[in-house]
Amino acid sequence: MLIDINDLQFTWPGNPRPTLNIPSFSLTQGERLFLHGPSGSGKSTLLSLLTGIHLAQSGSIRILGQNLAQLSGTKRDRFRADHLGYVFQQFNLLSYLSVLDNVLLPCQFSQLRTQRAGNPKMQALHLLDRLDLHRHLHQPVNALSVGQQQRVALARALIGAPEILIADEPTSALDAERRGAFIELLFECAAEHGTAILLVSHDPQLATQFDRSVNLPTLNHAAMEAEDA
Amino acid sequence: MHKIAFKSLLNRKLTVALSILTVALSVLLLIGVERLRTEARNSFSNTVSGTDLIIGARTGSVQLLLYSVFRVGNATNSIGWDSYQKWAKDERVEWTIPVSLGDSHKGFPVLGTSTDYFKHLKYAEDQHLQLAQGKVFSRTHEAVLGANVAKKSGYLLGGKIVLSHGSGEGAMSEHADQPFTIVGILAPTGTPVDDTVHVSLDGLTAIHEGWESGSASLLSTAGVLAADENRAVPLPVTITAFYVGLKSRTSLFGYQRAVNQYREETLMAIMPGVALSELWQLMKIAEQALLVVSGFVMIIGLLGMLTALLTGLNERRREMAILRSVGARAWQIFVLVMGETLLLVGVGIAAGVSLLYLILVTFRPVLREFYGMSIAINPPSSAELLMLLATLIAGALIGAVPAWRAYRMSLSDGLSQQS
Questions:
Q1: Which chain B residues have any C-beta within 8 angstroms of a chain A C-beta?
Q2: B330-371 helix and B272-315 helix, angle to the nearest 10 degrees
């Protein structure tokens, strides 16, 4: 089990009601899971818990069998660097680094991923080639199109073969035709590295391409309670 | 990690350059003021060397020092020639230099003295006066010019000058009937000697003959007493002050006490070093005010940098979130921002100090030429190093503020979308 959530409850400080109340959720090896999360369903909160930025007040999140609550802040950071790839909605790249250096960033913070990549630069070049970006290696990041930027972010999330890739609305900045193609590419590259995918989006149309689809408002009992109230 | 930090800095080069410039200019001011202060002190202290006592009419010791050595202000009283003779002949005395002031030439003070002046007066570290051209005066109407006087007025050896009664540019009447011939020009010393016209005591006596209460009598305006080298000049009645060199420093206090208790005339003997330190006491307030002001400029500079850093931080939330998403620890974000500030302050300090030395090297010839100020180019003193260290520490304290904010922000924002 890559992700295993049990009786998770999280309340933001100063909030009377919990934002998250998830009795059970899991992600298995190599799985491609679509998590449908309309705004206000606790999507960002869940992601900050899964990435170990925040800790739940009760219940547990286990990633690769490791209970995140038992790790110190710095160890959670290292754990994230080793095992998680992350793709933002947009503006994924550091504008002052080259395309290649952006892809190599995770290897600066994780020895494990550097080891797994073998020769990080070779793997980065391979990934960029695979994502049809080999002609843009030395271009300034800002000169790339949004779609190209998202593909660079994808290469960065996959370098060093982390077990899990979390993508937060990665296609929302892309137009409709490009979305499908991006997801295809995401699947192919992730499969090559044996990386499982957890993609969160408010757009239910994407769900069709995935192994499994989960509706966050159903999963999160806190949201239902809030709606009832 | 430092590669990322460096590229991130390069990405914000305008802000970074301005921050460095702010720190550099503050450092320049702070160290420059300190340098100026010590150089001014050195230059003052260099003026008298090897003189044990200065004796004049009773007044404030600082005042006596100022008018007898620095030609600043006027003597309130003079001392009698016989008093000078008595104390100069004391067995403890090795040499004396009589000094008579009050006249001027085109704003330069005229100093009447004996040839002992050129033999015994020392400046800086026991250096004797040197003649650049010509010789020491030997006749009544001969003058030896300080280096600056010759340079600014363009006088050459053999030229004739006329002295004026009183001092300053607006000196009153001229002793036009008795011109002096320039026989010597001194080498530059960086002391008030450079701005002085030296004549013999006899010369001064000669031009004042027939003068009563500050204006010329008919006798002198009629040219009756005009320059005549063969005419016997009477001994001076009074002089302004005299410098004393003793045979042994052990007799210093005894001799000084004896002079101060002299019953025939109220005299005062001062040690130049002691009077100088009294002068420093007086100047301390002004010096400290300058230092405080430059200290405040430094604080303002650092606060300006803090403002720039904090403003920049909001624009960099995106950057922090990306770094966190690829695995940067929260403490690494702290170190990143802290290191950045320390680097800015460090480079600013280095730039400020370099700028100071550049200015010193560039303007040294100008200062020497036009102001007779000789500035030594020394490595930073321990006081200056301490100031630089304090700046670095203040920079570190100030840098901790945005670093801590970035740390807190990266903990709370995490990977959430901030642009």
A1: 1, 4, 7-8, 10-11, 318-319, 321-332, 411, 414-417, 419
A2: 140
